[in-house]
Amino acid sequence: MMKRTMIFVAAAALLAACGGENVFSEPTTTSGNGSGAGNTTGVGGETAGAGGDTSTTTVGNGGSTGVGGGTPTTAPDPELAGPYTTAVIDDTVTVPGTNAEVAIHCVYPTAGPDAGPYPVVVLGHGFNIAPSLYYSYVEHLASFGYVALTVDFPTSFVFPNHVENAQELAYGIDWAGAHATVGAVADATNAGSTGHSLGGKLAVQAATFDSRIKAVFALDPVDGSMSCSPQNCPDVTNMLPIPIPTGFIGETTDAIGFQSCAPADDNFTTFYGATSSPSLSVEVLGANHVSFVDDLQACGLSCSFCNAATAMQDDVRLLSRAMMVAFFERHLRADTRYDAYLTGAEAQMRYVDSGLATIVSK
């Protein structure tokens, strides 16, 4: 009852906003990424417009000692753009079963070290937050050889339905596998799910019923149901553990207070506490609930109700994108070199020693 009471009391503010011991593995060699493929600087490079197929290029990884050159001995740095060129497709589809019309924004590899097929990763947006505010995440994943897409499932103040939303998010995998262009390079049998806030909850929820999802990584997920019924908006932590790798990035700035955007009894720590091994939990110190979006100004009113962050937003997003790539490289491609960036020497040096985050795993 306490959990439901907290969510209901804070609903007026939240509805507008959003939906032990450190363990480190043995260090591995991670230096050096070569000159990289492509010729455009920045994460994901430039992307084509709606419906476009124009490939993009990236710089940062690849070269003679990284992915794409000879026998790779070091892992491409997940903070840098990956070695794949990419293209963009935008589409609108009706989801069977829920009959919801959803917009899909997909970034997929067009060339790189591996010809594919590539794992699929679907990303869910936060409550009342536009999917476009997470485009840097799917661009970054695609630059590492993933078919990555946002799914704009409907959210509403009236009669929300997280069960249907989770089905709509998972339908993105079906879309990727069946699309005339993307389906040729997508491996819909090897998928991951991710998302922020409500989208993070739905990413976990989708993994409880869709066996194609082999790993789930959530950005500050919130297991709240607002004023929704338990049937339509169940507590996902009660569905855990699930027999796949899980990872969570979160913050505790918004864990308490009248307008707590990620209440302590519904935040990422409750998800991690209910999981079995292997699972990862990263707390970004000084971040708030909306530090993970691409552009706070574009987010507007929806991102204005949370407590003030002290961490630099660019640092939070850089860490989150890097951890997301490293997590899926480790668990969808079984590349153990990325342990260094998740719990090992690189994670210790970059995030823990610098005071940006704490990391625990099991």
Question: What does this protein structure show overall?
Answer:
- This protein has one domain: Rossmann fold.
- Helix content is 26%, strand content 19%.
- It contains ten helices and nine strands.
- The protein has helices at 2-9, 11-14, 135-143, 162-178, 198-209, 268-274, 296-299, 313-332, 339-342, 345-352; strands spanning 85-94, 101-111, 118-124, 147-152, 186-196, 213-219, 246-250, 279-284, 357-361.
- It has a nine-stranded mixed beta sheet, with helices on both faces.
- Helix 6 (268-274) links the parallel strand 7 (246-250) and strand 8 (279-284).
- Helix 4 (162-178) packs across helix 5 (198-209).
- The longest helix has 20 residues, at 313-332.
- Mean pLDDT is 84; it is low at 1-59 and 63-71.
Index terms:
single chain, 362 residues, alpha/beta, Rossmann fold, nine-stranded mixed β-sheet, disordered N terminus
